[in-house]
């Protein structure tokens, strides 16, 4: 009494681990789900190599493009609903990515010749550049396939979702899942 147990023995009142399996599962739970892949480094123990889409780029591109396009479409809708004679020149804003640039080329009130046209033209140009940026991020996310180390206990993602195009008598829907 009063002395520590010899090396390799548990102190009185403490039992050694019941089995290796419970120890291994608690060890795995503490490991991160993925690790970055670095060329030339050996595989970390307990991991397998996979390629994945860059979700950050996909999400960022979708949000930037979708928000800018929705803003342009809402603007075009509100201008067209007023029914003025030159309101039709804003209809191209319904087209994603290219619509703002078509509106700059064909629009009557966005010609940069007077103060009102400069403000409207600048806003349409900014919206177009924002849509192009969002589209570029989205394409970069779809095109990139970075390699990552994934833990062995995480199942492989084998379900591939094809885009769905649904067309009905009064409209259509395009659904993409990833």
UniProtKB/TrEMBL annotation:
TM region positions: 57-80, 119-143
Domain of life: Bacteria
Record keyword Membrane present: yes
UniProt entry keywords in alphabetical sequence: Membrane, Transmembrane, Transmembrane helix
Name assigned to this protein: Uncharacterized protein
Organism of this sequence: Sorangium cellulosum (Polyangium cellulosum)
């Amino acid at each position: 009494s009063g002395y520590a147990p010899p090396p390799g023995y548990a102190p009185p009142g403490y039992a050694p681990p019941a089995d290796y399996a419970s120890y291994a599962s608690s060890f795995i739970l503490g490991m991160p789900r993925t690790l970055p892949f670095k060329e030339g480094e050996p595989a970390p123990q307990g991991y397998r190599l996979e390629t994945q889409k860059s979700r950050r780029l996909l999400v960022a591109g979708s949000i930037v493009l979708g928000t800018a396009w929705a803003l342009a479409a809402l603007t075009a809708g509100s201008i067209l609903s007023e029914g003025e004679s030159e309101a039709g020149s804003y209809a191209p804003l319904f087209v994603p990515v290219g619509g703002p640039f078509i509106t700059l080329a064909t629009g009557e009130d966005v010609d940069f010749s007077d103060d009102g046209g400069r403000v409207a033209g600048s806003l349409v140009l900014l919206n177009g550049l924002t849509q192009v940026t969002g589209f570029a991020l989205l394409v970069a996310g779809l095109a990139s396939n970075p390699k990552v180390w994934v833990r062995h206990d995480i199942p492989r993602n084998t379900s591939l979702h094809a885009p769905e195009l649904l067309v009905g008598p009064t409209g259509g829907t395009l659904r993409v899942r990833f």
